[in-house]
Design a protein that fits this description.
Blueprint (H helix, E strand, L loop, with lengths): L3 E5 L8 H13 L7 H7 L4 H9 L1 H20 L11 H10 L3 E5 L4 H11 L1 H4 L2 E2 L13 H9 L5 E5 L2 H8 L5 E4 L6 H6 L2 E5 L2 H6 L12
Parallel strand pairs: 1-2, 1-4, 2-3, 4-5, 5-6
Helix pairs in contact: 1-2, 1-4, 3-4
Length: 220
């Protein structure tokens, strides 16, 4: 039983994963580096510090790592106005909160991006706290952000709600179960193999099934 619901933001509450993939593709092309979009997508959900060497290799990280991350920011900034929250994002968060859970949004995104996303679905009013890349030295799949999120609301035990294999891995390193949704484009098998306890097609499906999950009622 958990007392805290830890929601990932990118790809879980807001539809950003393919915007991220396109921004990374364009950032790489600035340096005449081409990686297929499907391969780039496989890395979405991990932090930029891990993403570049994982997708493009250690040599590219050494030569262009910081410049690529700056280029990605510029490319994503140009797309951020197109981002929208997923259906049922607000109603799911409200119901989880109404059930008595501490509610925290665990993002390792840049502060300006996270704040823009919160405004899309009223996250500042719904959540007790949220995180950004400023809150942890290491990004997912390391557990720092998840640990920080739990600490921000003084939670004793948590359940993670995320869309990527990296959410599952990060939470698993802390012994926290993950409920996964397929909104980020990862398959049911991928999410289950990464440690997801349950996988739902959408936030709406998750909301309709809350009584069969770790979000049925908080521990006391």
């Amino acid at each position: 039983m958990a007392d805290t619901a830890i929601f990932d933001v990118d790809g879980t509450l807001v539809d950003t994963n393919y915007h991220h993939a396109l921004a990374w593709y364009r950032a790489f092309r600035r340096y005449d580096i081409t990686r297929p979009l499907w391969r780039i997508h496989r890395g979405i959900g991990m932090g930029g510090d891990t993403f570049v060497p994982q997708i493009a290799g250690e040599d590219v990280e050494r030569e262009h790592g910081d410049a690529l991350r700056d280029a990605w920011t510029e490319e994503f900034d140009a797309l951020i106005g197109e981002v929208q929250p997923f259906d049922a994002a607000v109603s799911l968060l409200q119901e989880v909160k109404d059930r008595g859970f501490r509610l925290v949004l665990a993002s390792s995104g840049k502060t300006k991006h996270v704040e823009a996303f919160l405004d899309l679905f009223g996250g500042r009013d719904l959540a007790e706290a949220w995180t950004t890349s400023d809150d942890a030295e290491r990004s997912k799949p390391e557990p720092d952000i998840v640990q920080t999120a739990l600490a921000k609301v003084q939670g004793a035990s948590g359940v993670m709600i995320g869309d990527s294999v990296y959410d599952c891995i990060a939470a698993g390193k802390m012994g926290i179960p993950t409920i996964a949704v397929r909104t980020g484009g990862f398959s049911t098998d991928e999410l289950a193999e990464a440690g997801a306890a349950q996988v739902f097609e959408s936030l709406g499906e998750l909301q309709a099934s809350l009584d069969s999950t770790a979000l049925s009622a908080p521990s006391r």
